[in-house]
Write a structure and sequence with these properties.
Radius of gyration of chain A: 19 Å
Distance between the termini of chain A: 45 Å
Order of helices and strands of chain A: HHHHHHHHHH
Largest interface: A-B, 35 and 35 residues
Number of strands of chain A: 0
Oligomer: homodimer
Largest sheet of chain A: none
Amino acid sequence: MSAGTAADDTRSRLLATALRLFSKHGVGGTSLQMIADELGVTKAAVYYHFKTKDEITEAVAAPALQELLARMDEAERQRTRGAQIDQALSGFVDIIVRYRSLIALFNSDPGIMRAIERSLDGVENFAARMRTLLAGPDPDLATAINVNVMLAGLALAGGAPEQADLDDETLRTHLFDIGRRMLGRPKRRGARAEDKS
Amino acid sequence: MSAGTAADDTRSRLLATALRLFSKHGVGGTSLQMIADELGVTKAAVYYHFKTKDEITEAVAAPALQELLARMDEAERQRTRGAQIDQALSGFVDIIVRYRSLIALFNSDPGIMRAIERSLDGVENFAARMRTLLAGPDPDLATAINVNVMLAGLALAGGAPEQADLDDETLRTHLFDIGRRMLGRPKRRGARAEDKS
DNA sequence: GTCTATACTTAGATAGAC
DNA sequence: GTCTATCTAAGTATAGAC
């Protein structure tokens, strides 16, 4: 698969460089020229690997989305609603915490989101699946809005600079507790989650 | 002040046009050329009224921010903590609901935020003041994160397309209730809010 | 004071040579 | 797989017409 061909190397170096520059200057503030200069190649060389700037953006974001997908699959395999909710929430929070620099980047420069939506069948699918996992198939209005606020709040606040210097475990714990509280589920301390609904 | 000079008219038409195009194509997807064409003038004419594209963006966003500022002032004038919190929260929710199309725009295209931050002494000040109003001067970590999640969640979800077809009053009620619940304050039904803390 | 004509710089993107 | 050259469009800027 990933034999160390020159292209593979350039491609991965390119993605690493792009992520670094994106984080420093934002996506909009990073030109292909900058990326090319940093790599010691020309813009055209960059274009050989990615047909458009959006493709680079997507490739940078892909790992987090893939992982979220896997976590949602896992949650859907749970047999009780309570376990589904816990799995979905903890998966969501885990991704937020682990990829928070990426999320911060996206939040600060979300022309990105549109690019991602176009490619990955839409982030909308992610959000819709997540909502169903957490609120069930036919939530009333209050529940639906509540879940939307929760998802948006956890993601945005998780990536926010105010929380940037918290260690992963602390942030994860707090976000998870907030999520459970918002879903009307009791705090759990260490033990396995119980079926509740 | 605002005598009907040609410039004033062009300026306000320009802002209206910009808002419309921004909403349709996003800020990044709207060029000065498009705005100029729509107005039947040249790019340079646009440039006469606003020295940069960011200035247009700021001017479009300004009313909402000004109003939020006023609401925070009002909240700070309240004598009890409980009344401060209620005022701040309801002011915040009101702005979100009334300007939700603007918020949706910003969320979908947040290169904007940086532009606004640069001009209006930073959105950071808004967020910091709001946090202090809602969480008090020296909140513990859990409270601080909780308020951050709430602010981010209400704002983002309020502007989200899922809630787009709710009428203002319904959305306001739900967001306000979610906010109060997250702050650990009892629901109030009709009556004036009581001092609680 | 308001706008047009024009031009400069940089960005994203493409074609074709090596 | 990478480079040179080139194109279009964006944002910015100025000189000058009215």
